[in-house]
Every structure is written in structure tokens, then in C-alpha cells.
Amino acid sequence: MKDHPEKKKKYQDKYEPSRPRYLSRLAKRRHQLKDRTPAWNDPIAEEYVYYAATVIEDVYGGEVTVDHIVPIKGERVSGLHVHSNLQLLSRDANMRKYRKWLP
Predict the structure, then answer these.
(1) Whole-model pTM?
(2) Which helix (H) or strand (E) covers residue 52, if one does?
């Protein structure tokens, strides 16, 4: 976009107004994860789950997301941000599940 000022202007006009809202939601999400991560969490095991999602996407294609089995911010229950509460789902399956807990 450096060589195309008109494209840069069009992009900024479209996305810049929503940037503060996006940054606010991102900060809130980080805060929720931090609050729901216990001291005994194994960050290496957690990182491995995210790494596995990346590898599956690279090898097989498609979009793989990391989902909390018991939602961090569920209606009836609230889970922890630990590796044993994470699962890999397709983007479509994750969107269908949303904040539901399916025991």
C-alpha cells in the first residue's frame, strides 16, 4: 500500500473507525484469559495445542480453531484456560458451539 496512497486511504476510511472497538474487545479477552488461567497451568502443553492447530491447517488446509470445552465465559459454567480444557474444532463447528457447554 506504500505505493498506492488511494488504496491506503480507502482502507483507513473503512477500518480505522472500528479500530478502538476492536482493541477494546481484544484487551477484554486477554484480561478474561489471564483471570481464568491458574498458576499451575502448563504453558508448554497449552502452546502445543495451538501449535497442533497450525500444523493441521498447514498440512490439511481448512481453518482449525482452538476452542474451550467448558467456555471461559459461559452462561451456566465458566471454565479455566488450561490445556486440558482446549480442543481443536473446525471454524464452522466452533461457531455453532459458541458459548455452550456440551457435557
Answers:
(1) 0.71
(2) helix 43-60
